Each structure stands twice: as C-alpha cells, then as structure tokens.
Amino acid sequence: MMNAYEEYMRQMAQPMRDELTTAGFQELTTPEEVDQFMTTAEGPAIVVVNSVCGCAAGLARPSAKESLNNEKRPTHAVTVFAGQDREATNRMREYFEGYEPSSPSMALVENGKVLHFIPRDDIEDHEPEEILANLTQAYNQYC
Predict the structure, then answer these.
(1) How many beta carbons lie within 10 A of that of residue 123, not counting itself?
(2) DSSP characters over 70-97
(3) What is the DSSP string of 2-20?
(4) Which CATH number goes with the domain that contains 46?
(5) Catalytic positions, please?
(6) Measured at the alpha carbon of residue 38, what is the angle toward residues 36 and 40, in degrees to the nearest 5?
(7) Enclosing domain of residue 70
(8) Is residue 28 within 8 Å of residue 82, measured between CB atoms?
(9) Which pLDDT does position 124 carry in this prediction?
(10) So what's the pLDDT on residue 55?
C-alpha cells in the first residue's frame, strides 16, 4: 500500500505529467516499456526526463512542448518521470551512456543512441528561448 508521502507526490506530479502527455508525449513508466521503445522505435525521438523541480522542470516542459512546433522534429516524443517512475527512469538513463544522471534533462535519441543531450545545467537559469533554440538546432541537424 502506498504511504501518504508517495500518494501526495503522485498527486503533486500529475499536472506535470499531464503537461507533456496532453502535448503528445508518451509516458514510459516501466523498464520494459523503455526497452521496448528504445529497441523498436524507428526515427529520432525526444526523451524528456521529467521532474518536480520547479526551477528547471518549469523551463524544460514548456520548451519541450514548444519544440514540437519546429518544422523539423522527431518522429517520437516520450517521457519518463524521475522520482516517480524510478525504475523506468533508471533504465532510460542506462541508454544515456556517457552522460551523468540529470533531471530534468532531454535527449534526442535514435536507434537506442543519444544524438544530443541537454542536462539540467543547460536548462536551469537559462531563458526558455535558449532551451528551445538548443532543441530546435538539434532537430534541424538530426531530424
């Protein structure tokens, strides 16, 4: 049975989940879903490691959503939620070989490999336009 803290955090996080899923991001909530996606998805994908952190995640989610309006964009948009779906997030991070765990963060991936990675340090204390430009430049290069 879920304790009171876990239930509170789930309720807190739901609007943050909804912000991405209503924009078309698919949630991957288990390691099996992550593996299935990363081994079978064709074409580039944006992966958002979502988090509750307001200072960075409050910039990451809107930037990720807006990036999907770029003329060139990934074929897929998926998300895992750090601190909520721990096992799925840990499995996704295994695919981010060579990159330190960071949440929030974003990766452009294809065929299970990272093409471009945006860690928390490149989100926090940056303007939304800078984050959006970082994403769209990667899309223009790889998509």
Answers:
(1) 26
(2) SSS--SEEEEEETTTSHHHHHHHHHHST
(3) --HHHHHHHHHHHHHHHHH
(4) 3.40.30.10
(5) 53, 55
(6) 65
(7) 4-142
(8) no
(9) 95
(10) 77
Cβ contact 53:103 at 8 Å: yes
Upstream peptide bond of 31 is cis (omega within 30 degrees of 0): no
Q: How many domains does the chain have?
A: 1
Strand 26-27 relative to strand 76-81, pairing = parallel
CB–CB of 80/89 below 8 Å? yes
1 has a pLDDT exceeding 60:
no
pTM of the full structure? 0.94
Residue type, 71: E
pLDDT score for 2: 63
Q: Is the Cβ–Cβ distance between 139 and 67 less than 8 Å? A: yes
Q: What is the pLDDT of residue 6?
A: 83
pLDDT single digits (tens) 37-78: 999 999 999 999 999 987 799 999 999 999 999 999 999 999
